[in-house]
Design brief:
Radius of gyration: 18 Å
Number of helices: 8
Shape: elongated
Strand content: under 5%
Number of strands: 0
Largest sheet: none
Helix content: 55-70%
């Protein structure tokens, strides 16, 4: 029998937290995360111990705040771009231009098959 092994929220948090590139690209997210973390401990304690004290809702929020952005041109990046444009309800022309740019970027990176899957072609 195959068993699915998933990382815990703490493991995910630590992975994101310890990534120096992630910190340099997302300082605002880290600042907000530390504001939440400060409610559960102080800077003299290990971050994993303090994180474990947080409520599940705060733990999830902190992970989302420091979650790295997907690589530009990846399928996840394209999906996020698409969904953020829909949610923000951009006008037709801006949306069409953004959608076209995303498709072009993915095509240039060799993601033609993924594009077809995403748009149902």
């Amino acid at each position: 029998m195959k068993r699915m092994i998933t990382a815990s929220l703490l493991d995910t948090f630590m992975k994101y937290h310890e990534d120096a590139d992630n910190y340099s690209r997302n300082r605002d997210g880290f600042d907000k995360m530390y504001e939440i973390l400060d409610h559960y401990g102080n800077e003299n304690e290990d971050v994993d111990v303090v994180f474990s004290r947080a409520t599940p809702a705060d733990q999830e929020r902190m992970v989302q705040l420091i979650k790295p952005d997907p690589e530009v041109g990846s399928v996840e990046w394209f999906q996020n771009l698409y969904h953020s444009n829909v949610i923000e309800k951009l006008n037709g022309r801006q949306y069409a231009e953004g959608f076209s740019d995303a498709l072009f970027a993915l095509s240039e990176m060799g993601y033609e098959d993924e594009i077809r899957k995403l748009i149902g072609d």
